[in-house]
Amino acid sequence: GAMNLATAGFVPGGTQANAEFVGGALHFPGDREAMRNLVLDPQTSGGLLISLSPDHAARLTEQGQGVLVGEVTEGPPGVWFR
User: pTM score, two decimals?
Assistant: First the structure.
């Protein structure tokens, strides 16, 4: 039901703040404003994340269906950016 609500314009106020923070890093082909709003929804900590094997992640991003934001590596927990 989340997509129906987003399409109808029920979008939390923090969504715009998340969009401003992310800037131009998110690209949605065509008219995908409802999907963009769901991804930026502050109720989901500002984004929906999934974990995939590298080959599946590559296919998803090549199809324009996602953005690669990182990878799982060995090392101490809590290291987000290198």
Answer: 0.48
